[in-house]
Every structure is written in C-alpha cells, then in structure tokens.
Amino acid sequence: MNRRYHWLVRVTHWVNAVALVVMIASGLRIFNAYPAFGRKGESFCCYPFHGTPIPAWLTFGGWLAGARRWHFAMMWLLVANGLVYVAFLWLHGEWRELAPRRGILRDAWEMVKFYAFVRKDHPVQGKHNALQQLAYFALPWLALLSILTGIAIWKPVQLSGLTAAFGGYVWARYWHFLLMVVLSVLSIGHVFMVLTVDPYSLRAMTTGGYDPARTPERRNARPFYHLFAKGPVEGAPRTEERPNKERSKDERQKEERR
Amino acid sequence: MKRRQFLKLSGAALLAACNSRGPQAMQHVLSYAQRKNAVLERKLLRADKLDRPKASALNAGEALPVYFVATQIPVWNEAVNGPWRLEVKGLVRTPLSLSLAELMKLPRVTERVNHFCVEGWSAVSEWTGVRVSELARAAGMLPDARAVDFSSFDVGMTENGDEAAFHESWDLESAMHPQTLVCYGLDGAQLGPPHGAPARLFSPIKLGYKCTKYLTEVVFLPAPNGGFWSDVGYEWFAGT
C-alpha cells in the first residue's frame, strides 16, 4: 500500500499535537493569573470576559510557575519541530499540495455547500479538499505569528521593536491569546472532521497506510455520513484519484458537466 | 500493545495530566530548559536598552497592585529595630549604611517605566530613587562581584511552607542597568508602605517579583544566591 504521508510529516504531526496541547493548556494556566487585558489603571476595548478565569480542567501546569516552566520549555520543541516540518515541506516540494491555487476559494465554497447538503456530490479534489488545504496552509503562518507575539511578550524591553510592531505589550499579549483561540478552533475542527469524515486518515498519519477506495471523495462522505462505506459510493465523482493540478481545464469542465 | 489500547491509555494519561503539574520525571528537563533560557536571556540583555512606555499610556496610580509576602502590609518597626537603614555590603571596598535621608542625598533619578508582572499585567508608574550602579560606585564595588542580592524585612511563607525573609538575587548586568533603581518615590510622592516603603528595588527589565520591596540590604556577591520566588520554581533570571 502506498504511504500517504512521508514519515517526517507523520512524526512532526504527532510531536506537534502534543506540544501544541501542552502550550495551549499551560498558556491558559498562565493567562488565569490575570485573565484580562489592558494596563492597570486603563480599560480594554476588546475582551468581554474580563476577570473570568479559564476552567481549571482546560489548564495544565498546576500553578503559575509550573505552567511557565512547561510553556518556556515546550516552546523549543514546538519551534524545532515546526522548523523541521516547514523545511521538509520546502525541500520536498510538498508545499505545492498546500499552497492555494487559483479558484481555491470557489472550491472551498463548494466544499461548504457539500457539507451543508446544498450540493450532492463531493467536489473533485487532490490529496486534500480545498478547506483542508486552506487550513493546512494557514497553520504554519498562524504558528509563526504565535511565536512572534510570544517572543514580544516575553521580551518587551530587550526586543521592544518587535513588541511595538504588534502594538505594544498589551496588544501583543492580546494577539497571542487570539491566535491561540484560532489555533484551538482549527485544531478542534480538524479532530472533529478526522473522526467523523475520514478516520482512515488516522492510520495514514501513523503507519502511513491508506486505502484509496476509502477517501472521503470516493465515499462521498460528510460528517457522520458514509463513514464505513467503500467507494465509489453513489454521488461520488467518478474520477481516478489525481491531484487537480494534473487535470486539464477541459477535463475539469467535463467533470463539472457530468 | 494494540493501537486501540495505546490510544485509550494515552487518552487516560492526558486526562490525568490536566490541571496537574505534569509528570515528575519531566521536572529536571524543565529545570534544564529554564537554565538554558537564562543563558539566552542574558545574551539578549543590552545595558543601553531602555524601557520607554507609550506616551499615550496612563499611569496606573492607585490601580498599581499592592503586593507583599507577609500576611499584612510590612511596616518598619522603629521601636524594636531602631531607625531603618539600607546596608550596602559584600564585595565592596567601603560598606555603606545609609539612612533614608542619606539615600535621598545621592544622585536622584526619575524614570517613568513599565512594570511587567509575571501574572501578565503591566502598569506604568513614575519611580524616583538612586541607581543601583550609583550605590555600587559609592561603595566601591570590587571587580569579582558577579551578582547582587536584594533582601527585605518582608517575611512570609514560601510555596513550600517555610517562613522566609523575602530576597531576590540578580545578575550584575541587570542590577547595573540605568533603569534599575532603589526607589523612595512613586508618582511624585514619597513611597508608601503598600508599595515597599521606606525604599524598594524597581526595574522594568525584570519581572515584578524580582524587585524586592521593603529593602534592607544590597549585597554584592561572587555568584547569585537564588531568591524567594526563584527557589520554588519561578525563573531566576526573569528578564523582560
């Protein structure tokens, strides 16, 4: 069976999963020491939950110093792992599978329509569907911003230029928090979709094995729909699994007419 | 181990880890990272890098949090302890014992700077006092001094349940930074007991817990000797 993901991608994926969970949970424990934004003596425009702590079960580290010890150690693993992953994407050319191509927004909209039952058949896709592609493309950039805003609030005096670039210490802390929210939402959405649409990708992401007859495209799978089917399922596009970029414009138009 | 078993076990481990301090075996890895981070922080430190709050930032004033480790605001008891004096000693040619009036006669500096708290908040205040580097000059700091310990008459319980007088030691470079002051004035008024009277250490280049209040001693040392918070797990360097 073909290996759907290179071993480096599989390893960095799971290392990242652990590191990200620890970073977010310990970060939330740090946040709980002052669950608010704004300088003392000033109000802050843009955070409606001023003073409300994050539920303790979502946090990690036990106490402020414990959480900081985890946060400031795990950051190195997260950064090193991320660098290995991005370097691989670049050197191995896999970034082409993630970089948005022309029409990606239209394709993403078609996926939304499919998931919303507005459209019957699963849109034709390459290795990933357009929504996945957008999410996986955005992640390294969001991670980069998270790291930079993190450094900005770690060193607001020694690296004051960086902190100023994010609007100063208070705003940099706010962006760091918001980026965490975005990363959390994307990650939760990702896990939900894996479990309810393509649980077979769990195997693809661990041992690498993947049955081409079980792609969401071949199963015409939406969340909870056709989970255990073996493709092609009625309504699924009758095409060989091939990345979109390899298809000619003609071919694509033909498919659309079908 | 079957994959399903493994997933179940790791799930359980993850749940058990929530809101805990994490696996004990990892603690020495975390301490190692903390030490390496301190090395990096030291490299990032620039003696001429000053904190300059935004002009639009408001002074915290009354909103500046009051903080000490004792159970109530520490006040120097003159009847028991005699008049308050600041001792400058250790690796110096001429140890000093300064009354507040004598301290105030030394070259005076006022700095409007940020306070960065380990908890995540910040506050802008205007601090008046004497540079620690000025005290070092006045006492004739010896060349083998590498660290400075700032101790306090604030006595409280540590996280470990021991009673201890507050102190925090600093690397010499941070202590000699031009914005590191022994302060007796806050926002144009004399420093009051809630914020560390008669005198306290303040600097924007360290997290707030490094800035000893209710100061009694400035001791120049050949090596750092920890501190109230850094001994129980908070970063010792804690630069900003």
Helix count of chain A equals: 10
Q: What's the helix count of chain B? A: 6
Low-confidence stretches of chain A: none
The protein's oligomeric status is: heterodimer
Structural class label of chain B:
alpha+beta
Secondary-structure element order of chain B, N to C: HHHEEHEEHEEHEEEE
Strand content of chain A: under 5%
Going across the biggest sheet of chain B, name each strand in turn. 2-1-10-5-6
How much strand of chain B? Answer: 25-35%
List the defining traits of the structure above.
heterodimer; A: 258 residues; mainly alpha; elongated; B: 240 residues; alpha+beta; five-stranded mixed beta sheet; five-stranded antiparallel beta sheet; 6 helices; 23% helix; 27% strand
Write up what this structure looks like:
The complex is a heterodimer of chains A (258) and B (240). Chain A has 258 residues and is mainly alpha-helical. Chain A contains ten helices and no strands. Chain A is elongated, with a radius of gyration of 21 Å. The relative contact order of chain A is 0.11. Chain B is an alpha+beta fold. Chain B has helices spanning 3-17, 27-44, 78-81, 100-105, 132-139, 172-175, and strands at residues 86-90, 96-98, 109-116, 122-131, 147-157, 163-171, 181-186, 189-190, 200-202, 215-221. In chain B, a hairpin with a 5-residue loop joins strand 3 and strand 4 (122-131). Chain B starts with a helix and ends in a 19-residue tail after the last strand. The mean pLDDT of chain B is 93.
